[in-house]
Automatic annotation (TrEMBL):
<dbReference type="Pfam" id="PF16220">
    <property type="entry name" value="DUF4880"/>
</dbReference>
<dbReference type="InterPro" id="IPR006860">
    <property type="entry name" value="FecR"/>
</dbReference>
<dbReference type="GO" id="GO:0016989">
    <property type="term" value="F:sigma factor antagonist activity"/>
</dbReference>
<protein>
    <submittedName>
        <fullName>FecR family protein</fullName>
    </submittedName>
</protein>
<dbReference type="InterPro" id="IPR032623">
    <property type="entry name" value="FecR_N"/>
</dbReference>
<feature type="domain" description="FecR N-terminal">
    <location>
        <begin position="15"/>
        <end position="55"/>
    </location>
</feature>
<dbReference type="InterPro" id="IPR012373">
    <property type="entry name" value="Ferrdict_sens_TM"/>
</dbReference>
<keyword id="KW-0812">Transmembrane</keyword>
<feature type="transmembrane region" description="Helical">
    <location>
        <begin position="86"/>
        <end position="103"/>
    </location>
</feature>
<keyword id="KW-1133">Transmembrane helix</keyword>
<dbReference type="Pfam" id="PF04773">
    <property type="entry name" value="FecR"/>
</dbReference>
<keyword id="KW-0472">Membrane</keyword>
<feature type="domain" description="FecR protein">
    <location>
        <begin position="120"/>
        <end position="213"/>
    </location>
</feature>
Length: 327
């Protein structure tokens, strides 16, 4: 079991993330700064988790009244030369939000200046979870997923901080809209069953039943995606995708692929296991098809090796896959 991070470690990570965020906003990173940022990001899983939260916090900070920011700035004294007063205000606000979060025992940013109740759900690598919401709606969380559920008198809102969820909405007696928010925009459910897969660079939507309206964050683009259709979007644009029913079978612990390059297949499989898998460059062109279990990674890799005539060697810290030269 992973050792939990201390409160001090978490707060330091939030402050470091805030500094990086504001530096990136103020100027383009040079080569050295980019390398330092990437090194910080991969140094701890906590850093990646915090960075995703900071990204989702951005639009809330941008909506802060200027008088609130100004008041905060007046009470601050610069601590570092490479960040300005606005950066310090952001760090201060971020730290304050984190402190409120700690008091409320929530591992997520509460909505700024709001004390409406929220529920936090998250899964570790290899875990899945089904959650029944207050209105009867159901949410399934895939491996390494984190959501924040906010229900009040006006809305039913899910903030997806990381990972993948499948949702079955339920008719609401208060007729509140149901939406899923990522840093790329909002998904408004129109009575439906749908899947949302979020990463830092894109959000992918697959609609099984009903329809979902995509509202892109940085533009006025909107599009309704109907049943048996899919789309991908970022902060600016919406891109049509092919709907694959097999993509929704992760709830049955299955990874279904068709002619998927082996490196991409291993990347998808690695969502469910911490084992480091190394591929020999000579087999990167292998295309994988079929249905594979995500519960037993070693068994799945054995099937892949047998099917595509590959060799597997295992050490204490990794699995290496290469061409089987004996065949």
């Amino acid at each position: 079991m992973d050792k939990p991070y201390t409160t001090q470690e978490k707060q330091e990570a939030y402050e470091q993330a805030a500094e990086w965020f504001m530096l990136i906003q103020e100027q383009s990173l040079n080569t050295q700064q980019q390398a330092e940022f990437e090194a910080w990001l991969v140094a701890k899983p906590l850093h990646q988790e915090v960075w995703q939260n900071v990204a989702m916090f951005e639009e809330k900070f941008n909506r802060m009244p200027k008088q609130v920011i100004a008041k905060t700035v007046q009470e601050l004294k610069p601590k570092k030369k490479h960040i300005g007063k606005l950066s310090l205000a952001f760090i201060s606000l971020l730290t304050a939000v984190y402190a409120l979060q700690g008091i409320r025992q929530q591992d997520y940013f509460p909505e700024l200046l709001s004390f409406d109740p929220v529920d936090i759900y998250k899964t570790k690598i290899g875990e899945q979870q089904q959650v029944a919401l207050h209105d009867g709606s159901q949410i399934w969380l895939n491996s390494q997923t984190k959501i924040r559920v906010k229900y009040n008198d006006q809305q039913r809102k899910i903030e997806l901080a990381n990972g993948e969820i499948y949702i079955e909405t339920h008719k609401d007696r208060l007729q509140r809209p149901f939406s899923v928010h990522t840093q790329h925009g909002d998904l408004v459910a129109l009575g439906t069953k749908f899947n949302v897969d979020y990463t830092l660079d894109k959000t992918e939507l697959s609609v099984q039943e009903g329809a979902v309206r995509i509202e892109v964050r940085n533009s006025k683009q909107q599009q309704i995606i109907s049943a048996q259709h899919a789309a991908m979007f970022d902060t600016d644009n919406i891109y049509p995708q092919t709907f694959h029913a097999g993509d929704l079978l992760w709830r049955q612990h299955l990874l279904v692929v068709h002619s998927m390059p082996l490196p991409q297949f291993i990347k998808e499989l690695s969502k469910y296991d911490k084992t480091r898998i190394v591929l020999d460059p000579s087999i990167h062109d292998v295309l994988v098809s079929g249905s594979y279990s995500t519960r037993d990674i070693n068994k799945t890799l054995g099937v892949i090796a047998h099917t595509y005539q590959l060799n597997i060697s295992e050490t204490t810290d990794q699995i290496r896959i290469s061409a089987d030269v004996s065949k």
